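Field: sequence (string)
Field: structure_tokens (string)

Example rows 1 and 2, in order.
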Amino acid sequence: MCPRSRTLELSMDRSRARSRSCGDARQATEPDRTEHDRTEVPMVTAPCMTATDKATGVAEASKVEIDKSDVNANSLNVDQFLQPQWWIPEVDGVCVGDHRFLQVLGEGTHGRVYKVADQLCGGFNAVKVIRKNRLKSMDEVYGIAGECNTLAWLKHPNIIQLRGAVHANQNFYVFMEFAGNISLHNVLQTRDEQIGLDLKIARQLFNQIADAVAYCHWHGLAHCDLKPQNIVINEDGTPKIVDFGLALKLGWPVGNPRGTWPFTAPEAAWPCGRPWDLAKADVFSLAAVLIEMLCGTDKLFRMFGWMSQTPLNLCRVQEMVAYLATPGFLTTSLSSELGNGALNIAPMITGMMNVIPLKRWSAKVAASFNW
């Protein structure tokens, strides 16, 4: 077993106990939640900034309540949202306000993610710096507001927490809980290509991730981009789902592809303009993540007989559907790498990857399944 997996195993009991404690606390304090309770939104304040930005929910002395009715932020006043607080000092790659960037954690299309010290509470935060000169449309601005809106009211031990947001002159800054810079994808890459995590570790990680996804669905939200790269493993082995930039409210009419191939459900990868069930697509992606946890990176490509990093097209989607619809194919593939261990896991994965969304398992059922 590699050192990283050993570290995960040693810390997993602590993380599982803490997650169970958090879960028990939620159940004890929220026995009879109504539909209104499900959409109750907490206040959001800026980390340490001195300026008030009501459009983004940022303030030091005041607190601004984020809209409760629309997690996609379409109800936000875009004109206000676009007004920068030009007096907030910012130096690219160095600091914003009193926050000095300590380390680059990652880089995306619109900018970088940095580690910063939390001046008020101690410890560290992560800040996503989004360069406004890289934004190409108003949809991307809505996406920033939507992600902040979403993270503001999701409170779960396995979901990254929002600390605040700042709209300065040059950039948008989204402050989040710092959970380390090791993703599940990084962990899997440290192992041989066809060797996954220890079964015990995979089960404990998956149960926590599935519980977080079920929590999102219960609150009427779908992540829409579940993949190993969007699951961070912190120092004590606790997984946390990150990057809610594509998240949507359940029931939202979606006819365009959404997610990352090949972790995307067939109906979401090639919808042809037809709406699809966002929650059931999340469950498919969750099963795809589990397969790579158990069998190593690129297992999905190997399973479907594709070359590594085969691009998405209609033919590939049809091949995926034909494979998963054939009884025994998935179980045989898992057994070839997991041996007898696949016998307990295959029924769950088969149920989660059913090509008929209406027959697909829910995240709640998957999280409680004993394997």
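Row 2 begins here:
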Amino acid sequence: MDKRELIILGMGSSRTLCLYDAEVWSCNVGYLQIAQANEENPELNAKLNKIFMSHPNAPRPDGKGLHYNFDQMNLMVKHGIEIFNIHRCKGLNSRMYPLKRISKKFNTDFFSNTICYMMAYAVDQATTRELKLRYPMKVRIYGVDMMTKDEYELEKGGIEYWIGYARGLGIEVELYGGGAVLQTCTGLPYGVKFYKIKDVDPWGLLKCGKMKKWQEQAGFSDKQMKKLAEHSDAELAEITDGTGMGTGYPLGTK
């Protein structure tokens, strides 16, 4: 049986290493980063198959509108991209994430961020009710660096839990980008080496909050947002197979 490959794409810096050569799942407004990647390098042909969300819509911290553009997202749904959310959002054509069923299947509520929901869903799809693999599977993770203070302290443990769960069931999981996931603070087993914080974090990234770092990496100027919004319904129909299967939706291209 052929091995199935899946890319889980976060919004951290290592997302730039993604090759987009398998099915791609992203989170929240990561689709804007994918669109930007295509604008910068049209030959990349970056694509997207699923978006996962863990939040209802809310005002942006800078007061400029809401976090999510439901018009853009609904247009992607129309052209085959699935959107999962743990909340029901009025005006968004998303599917409810099966949180209750998955929590029961794996006997845990340990989901510390959206990436955990993505990993759990991937494991769920690849296993039977008895947790036997349906098919050989490989998950490649990009852009999940966990290098801000709150990500490191509050979120990375959940990702490590689900990576361990997947590997324990025989799913191959690869991490790209040299982030903090599955790393001790020294990069060595506990007790082998003591450390100073400057040795671990010479640039002070762990002092930087997630929202500040996210705004630096994912924020778009008004000019960029206008350019991303220029794609008409007809243009989008030309760049997707319309089925939501296989090739995905190569965002940002014309």
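free_text_note (row 2): The mean pLDDT is 85.
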